[in-house]
Design a protein that fits this description.
Helices cover 30% and strands 28% of the residues. By secondary structure, the chain is of the alpha/beta class. The strands form three sheets. A six-stranded mixed beta sheet has the order 6-7-8-3-9-10, sandwiched between helices. Strands 2-1-4-5 form a four-stranded antiparallel beta sheet, covered by helices on one side.
């Protein structure tokens, strides 16, 4: 579906991603993890054809993404940036309707079928009752649902999201991740997103790819990837990794960054664990 072969990316003369070969499985949830500046957001942009390869290539359906017509590409995948800009005064229904742009000519208005699909996308994301409200009046979690509805209205089979839980409080973060999981499980949407929280990725992802200093450290299932040794090496944090009843790993982090000295465990509750 999406794969990279010895992909290297740069901003001008500054290399950011180096020699990454990665396959994104169809119909799954893939999370890109890594410290700040590790290259995960840059890698995500390359999947959408927004950043040309310095060397190697990104393939979508076995065809270099650079050779895809932009409109045809927009029918195949949708991408939500980390900080989407809300047009002044735009209503929820009108923002969601913008997702229909690749399905019509630039001079055409939305047709009845477009409006129906936009409404269905709002229903799927739980924002249909907000249709007549200005997007800027909504909470952060509600706005994120509206952006996802717009992407769904685009009717693609792949959704790319750059840190979709950033700037959201804990409750809204889980709400967005649960929504993406529902869309994946019930509608077969392939989801690829960059995250910072290892525990959230471990709970929701089918595949995790960890980046460090522009290189792919490891990829695999959460239980294969989330280990004490890897977290110490990549994130320089001491942690204790346990597993829930479903075999999903969970990290109990330590208060101090790993420097070789003894530190005190910082206990925090597993948000996915049931109450006793």
């Amino acid at each position: 579906m999406i794969r990279t072969e010895q992909l290297s990316l740069a901003y001008g003369a500054t290399p950011v991603v180096n020699n990454v070969s990665l396959t994104i499985p169809e119909g799954g949830i893939t999370c890109l993890l890594g410290p700040n500046g590790s290259g995960k957001s840059t890698l995500l942009k390359s999947f959408a054809g927004l950043l040309p390869a310095r060397s190697g290539e990104v393939l979508l359906d076995d065809m270099p993404v650079s050779e895809w017509d932009r409109r045809r590409l927009a029918l195949r995948l949708a991408m939500l940036p980390q900080k989407p800009i809300v047009p002044d005064g735009i209503l929820v229904k009108d923002l969601v309707a913008l997702g229909r742009f690749p399905h019509r000519k630039w001079w055409q208005n939305n047709q009845a079928g477009d409006n129906r699909i936009a409404f269905e996308s709002m229903v799927m994301t739980g924002v249909s009752e907000l249709a007549g409200r200005p997007v800027e009046s909504l909470s952060g979690g509600q706005q994120q649902r509206v952006w996802i509805a717009m992407a769904l209205a685009q009717e693609t089979s792949i959704l790319l999201l750059d840190e979709p839980t950033t700037f959201l409080d804990w409750g809204y973060q889980l709400e967005v991740l649960e929504l993406l999981t529902k869309l994946n499980r019930e509608h077969g949407l392939t989801v690829v997103m960059s995250l910072h929280d290892l525990n959230q990725a471990a709970q929701f992802a089918d595949q995790i790819a960890i980046m460090a200093e522009g290189q792919l450290e490891v990829s695999g299932s959460p239980s294969e990837v989330i280990t004490e040794t890897l977290i110490r090496r990549v994130f320089r944090v001491e942690t204790s990794v346990s597993h829930d009843d479903n075999g999903r790993p969970f990290c109990s982090s330590y208060a101090a960054a790993y420097k070789g000295e003894k530190s005190t465990p910082y206990e925090h509750r597993n948000p996915m664990a049931s109450e006793a």
